[in-house]
Amino acid sequence: MGQKILLEKAHVPGIRTYEVYRREGGYRSVEKALKSMTPDEVVEEVKTSGLRGRGGAGFPTGMKWSFIDKKSGKPRHLVCNADESEPGTFKDRYLMEFIPHILIEGMITSSYALGCNLSYIYIRGEYMWVFRILENAIKEAYAAGWLGKNILGTGYDLDLHVHCGAGAYICGEETALIESLEGKRGNPRIKPPFPAVSGLWANPTVVNNVESIAAVPWIVNNTGAEYAKIGIGRSTGTKLISASGHCKNPGVYEIDLGLSVDEFMNSDEYLGGMMDDRPLKALVPGGSSVPILPANLIFKTAEGNDRLMTYESLSEGGFASGSMLGSGGFIVYNDTTCIVRNTWNFSRFYHHESCGQCSPCREGTGWMEKVLHRIEHGHGREEDIELLWDIQRKIEGNTICPLGDAAAWPVAAAIRHFRDEFEFHVRYPEKIKNRDHFVAEPWEKVKHMVAKEVV
Ligand SMILES: Cc1cc2nc3c(=O)[nH]c(=O)nc-3n(C[C@H](O)[C@H](O)[C@H](O)COP(=O)(O)O)c2cc1C
Ligand code: SF4
User: Fold this and answer.
1) Is 176 helix (H, G, I), strand (E, B) or coil?
2) 400 C-beta closer than 6 A to ligand 2
3) pLDDT digits (tens, 9 = 90+) for 146-179
4) Could you tell me if 237 and 215 are in contact, meaning their C-beta atoms sit under 8 angstroms apart?
5) Which pLDDT band, with edges at 50, 70 and 90, does 439 fall under?
6) Half-sphere exposure of 404 (CA within 13 A, CB side)
7) How would residue 1 be classed by pLDDT, with cut points 50, 70 and 90?
8) How far is the CA of 294 from the centre of ligand 1 (A)?
9) How many separate helices (H) and strands (E) can be counted in the chain?
10) What is the Cα–Cα distance from 318 to 299, expressed in whole angstroms?
11) Could you give the CA distance from residue 75 to residue 205 in angstroms, rounded to a whole number?
12) Edge-to-edge strands of the sheet including 238-245?
């Protein structure tokens, strides 16, 4: 049984209210930090904890905090990224919906560490009911004296606002988020300068994911060294995983990093194995942007090591045979899944969400969607597979922000590991006409046909 740091109190009746949250020990980290620690000491604890950003990239949080420009004398801001629009990811929503005060507490302690007096939570437009929950929690925190002027009589002032986006995935990219917060179109900025130097209103800014900020109270209360004892190597602490797809028990789980993928997938404490006991075909372990893994690379790496739920193990083998922990959007696929359709679906999303500033992303995501559409609908050509490969290769690394990469990687991985399925679509259009293809005849039963056909 793993430790619960974030979700320990999630099921306490009434925990959403300030009263119950406080009674259960909430806001202790604010008292401890403001009354007995300097801001730099809080930063040091977070560094010692080894906490890595939970928004997807896994950048060390303490190190990011230490980059914030203090010399300029400009106001500094902490912005919480609650945009959570990556398909397959819904863990931040869970945290904010059920224990909103853990985020407010984390925002206060972290803002103090960074020397910010004005901080924001930027939440996706589709989470309107969660926005209201946060608004209410912030109101309660002001009323109880945790926000506003002279908090706890320490002379520290902090104002916190929650701001609602308008439903664009690109506004999760930190500089697009900042543009949007400033009231502009959410177009990512060219970096440098990085937000730590010039972010919100050109002031030094740190953008952190909800889960990263929510981990800070526990680190301050229990020390960074205790946090670093959980997990393995450079993957310290616990991680929220949003599990969906063909598993028995989908949902949001808090795991100790280092748990094996096998145990997470198959034990009753977590996903409980495959829905209807059908065979596992593929896994997207970290949200739609990360490479899909075929069944033979899910529980073991290509080197034969156990695959673990860590940043390192999930990426072992690079993109040739590995993937990424990403945002923890764990999508399970059984043998009836059409990988081409899944890839087309993801491509549709990225095309729709591209902001259009860079040609490779603006045009390339559209081309990929079109080519995948025709393959999936039985109009594909043999050379389309090479064409897709070529397009994704030309997007990756050639854009202002990583949305281009995020669109390219799933296509590359699908072709890399499931090329024969693309070939099957091209060679047997009549077999895939039915939108239920692979349901009555799962891929395993028909794949022998591809090898027989010589084109
Ligand atoms: C297209 C795109 C969408 C993103 N969406 C999110 C998001 O919804 N939530 C998030 O925390 N980070 C998202 N990120 C990553 C952020 O840019 C940023 O790295 C992150 O908020 C930093 O927080 P962390 O260091 O705590 O992980 C996204 C990045 C890209 C390129
Ligand atoms: S990569 Fe795509 S989403 Fe990112 S800035 Fe360029 S066009 Fe916009």
Assistant:
1) helix
2) yes
3) 999 999 999 999 999 999 999 999 999 999 999 9
4) yes
5) confident
6) 21
7) low
8) 26
9) 19, 12
10) 16
11) 9
12) 251-256, 238-245, 329-334, 280-284, 293-294
* Ligand 1 site, residue 353, Cβ cutoff 6 A: no
Q: Do the Cβ atoms of 325 and 239 come closer than 8 Å?
A: yes
- Strands 329-334, 235-236: pairing is unpaired
The secondary structure of 353-409, three-state, reads HCCCCCHHHHHHHHHHHHHHHHHHCCCCCCHHHHHHHHHHHHHCCCCCCCHHHHHHH
Structure tokens at 36: 């007995």
**pLDDT, tens digit, 9 for 90 and up, residues 100-155:** 999 999 999 999 999 999 999 999 999 999 999 999 999 999 999 999 999 999 99
Exposure string (b/e) for 332-363, b if CB count within 10 Å is 16 or more? Answer: bbbbbbbbbbbbbbbbbbbbebbbebbebbbb
| Coil vs helix vs strand at 69 | coil
Tell me which residue has tokens 């090898």.
451
The per-residue pLDDT for 454 is 47
Q: Which of 171, 399, 405, 409 to mutate to test ligand 2, by most ligand atoms within 8 A of the CB atom?
A: 399
- What the block records as the tokens of 133 is 């929950």
Helix (H) or strand (E) holding 238: strand 238-245
